[in-house]
């Protein structure tokens, strides 16, 4: 069995438990830091908008005995604008000229055809007006808004409003990070990028929903027991779905990586590549946020409920009592802490003092679900 | 569905996995059969893969008509562009609206994309204007063809004075009726069998309110006219660039100059009066073969208001001397035809002349569909050669294959024997997706474009996730100490709910993407939505039943170490039953 498989078993038995919820402040801080970096990056560097936003043309030529610099020279001479030329895996070239009008584009195409010694019809021309990308982006924003509203309504019905809010925040978080990465790395933003970004929405929530589903199930009747606080249960939900989350993310990233590799390797920049690139960044952010942000947020929101507060009090009291008796229900190195709360030896008591006590590990009982 | 009780007896459909499997296999066979039957073995390829031209037009607000961009007008425009593009002999061109103000025109490879683009992108407005003067197309040049009305071209004066014209030609719309240029070749009259209610058979001058003057104010009077004269004199119709700009900024009420090609393919220039009838007034027009006379003609039907206007203009023009007894059909500033008027006409009319089938049908198209309710601007034009499209498709397929292979390797390494189920399910999903895509081509015009390929590849992840959720659940149950068969049944209701909930979110995002986005993005969204739906179908009717059946085999049930379900390796707790914790799984809610 692979190590990951063992990890799954150990996670399941609670032998290994990563205390995502108790350490949530750390992860919030990390996320806030990343988000601020993203926003600063966006403000300072801005996004490198593709020609779809500036207007211009992309010519894709077949293979020919022409160097990149020659092609660039021809394109710039014919258009009077700066041209970006890339060589493609196929031997052809992708020549991008911004701020071009139809007549100029025709001229560039003709001259390129002459220079390359090919039929004019063999050169692909993609000509876009300056407001084209903007229109797509506007629609993307509309889509984003509509989707967010629908999803919040759906999650509020299928789960509860706290989960809906948490999912929404995680979603915004993912988008900010993805856009931030684009700003910081200076990647070109094209309609393909926008599509990728919109797809992330589905993916990001997909992961979150799976965790929430598990959480909803295991937090049922939570008030009828006194062993675990809501945060504990939330943390366990993350852990128990962790293997699935990892597997799913890996499995989703593999085809996207294939797209990215093939798209970039063979065809140069293009829609294939743009979509897969933003998917790649967004998927990673989405997996991260569903584990480190969305679920801890739900726990935070839930712990504000009077019922949950009361539960926590009871749980803590019980644990304190148990600790006072010197009792450990755990075979793994009893280590009652100074505040009398049962903690794992690896978990600092300070973190656990507020909320979200971590269970002792290897608890033999109470593991059935 | 209730979680199966601890007895071995599975309930409901779970007891009949064979039936569900048979169902989906039949569906697959039927779809594949349908594919062969329809002769549609491959999905229809989009322009970006098959090669061709995609033109995106955006409607522009015109001054004075701020609310012109609305659904009705957009749909009218689409209809006009579509019929015109296809009317011009472009096969399988697609025209559709995108969003509020865009029209996408897809023109497959093999058609003259340059020509189509001109037809589509620039064709905007159609007017009927009275002809004031006609001359040969070059500036200050003698008329090439001997003409019975030389004076018209000499001075270029749109004048009442130019009465040197000679041929009243009142009754006979004969093709040989000669003044000059294109006008000579065409005459206008009522259809032979007159469907028109008002007197169209006769030159009923009485109907006309003012058959006397040119509609324009006396041209010689003001400086604007002088400028026009000058412009006319200098106009060189043989210059493309000059012609291209002629129609710009000309208001319907202006007197203007224009160029037109006559039937001998020579350019002529015109001075035209204010527009009196516009394209919207034409209800229908088509090029037809006149069976009796064996020649091509163009018939027109006018709307009610159009009929009134038309009767006004024809009754007046029919009284005029050539060349002023003609009106010009002006499309985007270019004269496409300038027939003479021989009689007052009303609701319907026909243009006869030296038409070929093509020219008659072209003119019919232009007349019927000439008047776009909006003006459009080209937003993007993409031409893709089939070669590049093929390369992109190939790259996409390779990427998909690599992605799929990686996923399979991962699943095999991680899930061992279980991966067999996963791979078969992916295969089932792939077959369903492919056959549906192929069948949806003719059915709803689905075309596989590059983003759609991308969507399909991305969907591999979504499909695989469903198995992962289910497998993990089964393994959890085995860790609980259950044997495989109950584990498979117990895991299902919870896995099912998770799969439905998360697929719903995925589907929702696909639907939103599909509804709000423009152009190519829709292909992506459509594929994503389709595969998400298929994922649900495959998991319910294929993966789950297959799992149930395989759970009965010794290999899986005994927890063979290669089965991926070895209890020992999964860390199952040997003493099985224990009291359930707080979260007793109750009936899972259907999501």
Automatic annotation (TrEMBL), chain A:
- What positions does the domain Protein export membrane protein SecD/SecF C-terminal occupy? 111-303
Membrane-spanning residues where?
Answer: 26-44, 140-157, 164-185, 191-212, 246-269, 275-299
Q: Where is this region: Disordered?
A: 322-369
Q: Which InterPro entries match?
A: SecD/SecF_arch_bac (IPR022813), SecD/SecF_bac (IPR022645), SecD/SecF_CS (IPR022646), SecD_SecF_C (IPR048634), SecD_SecF_C_bact (IPR055344), SecF_bac (IPR005665)
Name the keywords, alphabetized: Cell membrane, Membrane, Protein transport, Translocation, Transmembrane, Transmembrane helix, Transport
**Compartments where located:** Cell membrane
What's one GO-annotated cellular component? plasma membrane
Gene Ontology BP, a term:
intracellular protein transmembrane transport
Biased composition (Low complexity) is annotated at 346-357
Note the Gene3D superfamilies from the entry: Multidrug efflux transporter AcrB transmembrane domain
Q: Where are stretches of biased composition, namely Basic residues?
A: 358-369
Top-level lineage group: Bacteria
- Topologically, how does it sit relative to the membrane? Multi-pass membrane protein
Q: Where is the composition biased (Acidic residues)?
A: 329-345
GO terms (molecular function) for this protein are: protein-transporting ATPase activity
NCBIfam families of this UniProt entry? 2A0604s01 (TIGR00916), transloc_SecF (TIGR00966)
Q: Which PANTHER family match?
A: PROTEIN TRANSLOCASE SUBUNIT SECF, PROTEIN-EXPORT MEMBRANE PROTEIN SEC
Q: Which family does it belong to?
A: Belongs to the SecD/SecF family. SecF subfamily.
What's this protein's function?
Answer: Part of the Sec protein translocase complex. Interacts with the SecYEG preprotein conducting channel. SecDF uses the proton motive force (PMF) to complete protein translocation after the ATP-dependent function of SecA.
Describe the protein's quaternary organization and the partners it interacts with.
Forms a complex with SecD. Part of the essential Sec protein translocation apparatus which comprises SecA, SecYEG and auxiliary proteins SecDF. Other proteins may also be involved.
Protein name per Swiss-Prot or TrEMBL: Protein-export membrane protein SecF
What is the scientific name of the source organism? Streptomyces genisteinicus
Highest classification ranks of the organism: Bacteria, Bacillati, Actinomycetota, Actinomycetes, Kitasatosporales
UniProtKB/TrEMBL annotation, chain B:
Comp. bias (Basic and acidic residues): 157-169
- Chief subcellular site? membrane
Q: Which domain of life is it from?
A: Bacteria
Q: One biological process GO term for this chain?
A: protein targeting
* Region listing for Disordered, in residue ranges: 138-223, 568-591
Q: Where is the Protein export membrane protein SecD/SecF C-terminal domain?
A: 376-551
Could you identify this protein by its name? Protein translocase subunit SecD
List locations, semicolon-separated. Cell membrane
Species of origin: Streptomyces genisteinicus
Give GO terms: molecular function aspect only.
Answer: protein-transporting ATPase activity
Keywords of the record:
Cell membrane, Membrane, Protein transport, Translocation, Transmembrane, Transmembrane helix, Transport
């Amino acid at each position: 069995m692979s190590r990951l498989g063992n990890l799954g078993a150990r996670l399941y038995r609670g032998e290994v438990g990563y205390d995502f919820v108790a350490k949530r402040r750390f992860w919030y801080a990390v996320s806030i830091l990343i988000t601020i970096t993203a926003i600063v990056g966006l403000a300072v560097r801005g996004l490198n908008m593709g020609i779809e936003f500036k207007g211009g043309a992309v010519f894709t030529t077949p293979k020919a005995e022409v160097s990149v610099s020659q092609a660039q020279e021809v394109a710039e001479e014919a258009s009077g604008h700066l041209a970006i030329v890339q060589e493609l895996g196929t031997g052809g070239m992708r020549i991008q000229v911004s701020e071009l009008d139809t007549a100029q584009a025709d001229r560039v195409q003709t001259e390129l055809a002459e220079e390359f010694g090919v039929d004019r019809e063999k050169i692909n021309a993609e000509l876009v007006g300056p407001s084209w990308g903007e229109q797509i982006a506007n629609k993307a924003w509309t889509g984003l808004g509509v989707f967010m509203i629908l999803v919040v309504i759906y999650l509020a019905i299928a789960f509860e409003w706290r989960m809906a809010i948490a999912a929404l925040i995680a979603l915004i978080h993912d988008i900010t990070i993805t856009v931030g990465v684009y700003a910081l790395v200076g990647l070109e933003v094209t309609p393909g990028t926008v599509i990728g970004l919109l797809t992330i929405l589905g993916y990001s929530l997909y992961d979150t929903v799976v965790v929430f589903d598990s959480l909803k199930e295991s937090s049922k009747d939570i008030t009828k027991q006194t062993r675990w606080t809501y945060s504990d249960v939330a943390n366990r939900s993350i852990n128990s779905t962790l293997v699935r989350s990892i597997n799913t993310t890996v499995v989703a990233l593999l085809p996207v990586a294939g797209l990215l590799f093939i798209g970039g390797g063979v065809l140069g920049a293009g829609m294939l590549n743009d979509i897969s690139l933003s998917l790649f960044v967004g998927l990673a952010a989405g997996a991260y946020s569903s584990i480190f942000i969305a679920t801890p947020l739900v726990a935070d929101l839930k712990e504000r409920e009077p019922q949950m507060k009361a539960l926590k009090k009871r749980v803590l009291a019980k644990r304190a009592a148990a600790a006072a008796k010197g009792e450990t229900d755990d075979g793994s190195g009893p280590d009652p802490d100074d505040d009398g709360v049962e903690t794992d030896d690896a978990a600092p008591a300070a973190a656990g003092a507020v909320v979200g006590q971590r269970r002792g590990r290897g608890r033999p009982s109470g593991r059935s679900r | 569905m209730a979680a199966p009780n601890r007895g071995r007896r599975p309930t409901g459909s779970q007891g009949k996995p064979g039936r569900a499997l048979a169902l989906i296999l039949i569906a697959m066979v039927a779809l594949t059969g349908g594919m062969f039957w329809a002769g549609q073995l491959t999905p229809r390829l989009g322009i970006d893969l098959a090669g061709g031209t995609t033109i995106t037009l955006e409607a522009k607000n015109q001054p004075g008509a701020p609310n012109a961009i609305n659904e009705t007008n957009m749909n009218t425009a689409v209809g006009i562009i579509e019929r015109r593009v296809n009317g011009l002999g472009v096969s399988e061109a697609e025209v559709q609206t995108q969003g509020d103000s865009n029209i996408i025109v897809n023109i497959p490879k093999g058609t003259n994309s340059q020509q189509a683009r001109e037809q589509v992108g620039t064709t905007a407005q159609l007017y009927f204007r009275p002809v004031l003067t006609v001359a040969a197309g070059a500036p200050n040049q003698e008329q090439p063809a001997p003409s019975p009305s030389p004076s018209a071209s000499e001075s270029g004066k749109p004048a009442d004075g130019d009465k040197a014209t000679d041929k009243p030609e009142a009754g006979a719309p004969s093709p040989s009726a000669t003044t000059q240029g294109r006008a000579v070749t065409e005459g206008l009259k009522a259809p032979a069998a007159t469907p028109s209610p008002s007197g169209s058979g006769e030159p009923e001058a009485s109907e006309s309110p003012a058959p006397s003057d040119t509609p324009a104010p006396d041209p010689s009077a003001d400086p604007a006219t002088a400028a026009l004269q000058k412009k006319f004199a200098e106009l060189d119709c043989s210059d493309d660039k000059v012609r291209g700009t002629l129609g710009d900024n000309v208001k319907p009420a202006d007197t203007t100059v224009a160029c037109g090609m006559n039937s001998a393919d020579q350019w002529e220039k015109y001075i035209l009066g204010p527009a009196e009838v516009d394209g919207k007034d034409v209800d229908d027009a088509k090029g037809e073969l006149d069976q009796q006379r064996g020649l091509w003609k163009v018939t027109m039907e006018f709307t009610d208001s159009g009929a009134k206007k038309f009767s006004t203009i024809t009754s007046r023009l029919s009284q005029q001397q050539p060349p002023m007894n003609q009106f010009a059909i002006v499309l985007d500033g270019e004269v496409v035809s300038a027939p003479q008027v021989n009689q007052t006409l009303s609701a319907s009319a026909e243009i006869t002349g030296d038409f070929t089938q093509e020219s008659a049908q072209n003119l019919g198209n232009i007349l019927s569909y000439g008047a776009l309710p909006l003006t459009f601007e080209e937003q993007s034009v993409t031409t893709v050669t089939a070669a590049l499209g093929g390369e992109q498709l190939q790259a996409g397929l390779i990427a998909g294959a690599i992605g799929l292979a990686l996923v399979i390797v991962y699943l095999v390494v991680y899930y061992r024997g279980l991966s067999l189920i996963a791979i078969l399910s992916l295969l089932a999903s792939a077959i369903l997706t492919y056959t549906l895509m192929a069948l949806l081509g003719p059915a709803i015009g689905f075309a596989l474009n590059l983003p759609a390929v991308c969507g399909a590849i991305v969907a591999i992840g979504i499909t695989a996730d469903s198995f992962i959720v289910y497998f993990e659940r089964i393994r959890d149950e085995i860790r609980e100490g259950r044997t495989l068969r109950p584990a498979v049944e117990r895991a299902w209701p919870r896995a099912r709910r998770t799969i439905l909930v998360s697929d719903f979110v995925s589907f929702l995002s696909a639907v939103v993407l599909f509804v709000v986005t423009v152009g190519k993005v829709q292909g992506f969204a459509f594929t994503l939505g389709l595969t998400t739906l298929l994922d649900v179908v495959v998991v319910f009717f294929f993966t789950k039943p297959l799992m149930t059946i395989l759970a009965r085999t010794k290999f899986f049930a005994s927890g063979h170490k290669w089965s991926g379900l070895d209890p020992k390796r999964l860390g199952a707790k040997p003493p099985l039953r224990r009291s359930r914790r707080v979260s007793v799984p109750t009936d899972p809610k259907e999501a």
